[in-house]
Amino acid sequence: MRRALALTWFQHRRIRELCAGLDIELLVLTTKRGGLLRYLVLGARTLLQLARRRPRVVLVQNPSLILAALAAAVRGVLGYRLVVDAHNEAVVPFINRQRWVARLSQWVIRRADLTIVSNRQLAERVLRQGGEPYTLPDRIPVPPAAPARTLSGTFNVVLIATFAPDEPIAEVLEAVRGVEVELYVTGDHRKLDGAVAATVPANVRFTGFLDELDYWSLLRSADAIVDLTLMDDCLVCGSYEALALGKPMLLSNNSATMELFGDSAVFTNNTVADIRGALERLRLEQVRLQAAAAGKRRELADLWTGSARALSDRVAGAARMEAVD
Questions:
Q1: E strand or H helix at 61
Q2: Least CB-packed of 133, 216, 238, 271 within 10 Å?
């Protein structure tokens, strides 16, 4: 899409797939600097790119809230339409609950011409905050040709983890204690709370951070995939990855997740007892869940194609309006 530019300050599959589907150039700006200096460096590089390229439409990913706020602040000066791809934290801050974060997030929503969210529930929140929402779930990824490998357990489950504050990792670890499940946990387990790390069950294996091929190889090898969150109305990336491979999946029972995935997943309220029972359901219903996942994958692929096409027309129309203005 000519005269449109997407900016992000960190890699994320959602915005990569979004830009590929909309045919928008994606510019990923990163730095090894930390703290305040990181924001100063990336902010300066962002302004330089916007001033040089003078796009008619700018798409930014939020988080980063600072990137989104910067794009909203200078849009009038540089004369572009602003589209924000808003993740849950950008609409309802969960990890960063400071009052200024909530206020700045709402200001960005009001300043943006369009705020893209993943589900109906977040769209309603955007409307209440004075924004213009557009609902677009994540695109189902295409897994790389990573071979499956033989895992050691009779029922092998992968827990997709980043050890963020919204993930009930301790509850999952306790739920598999004494159960015939071999649990593989992705991500940097050095972030795990020390007290929890000291009592990890013997049937838990931490994989550490995996590169792309090894990550997909592990998912392909699993009997089931677990990806849980404490956030309201959060559609986790792991759910789409599980669908891409046709794997049974265990997800948190927030309303957006249950509405989108229906009978293609097993849901839990994130407590130890409920997770343990849900894992048993995964084991007993593998065949049904595999078939349901295949059907849901086709359904969501068609949904994404139609919604992305309509969004592309809308963004292109905004670019033409900006050109006329």
A1: strand 57-62
A2: 271
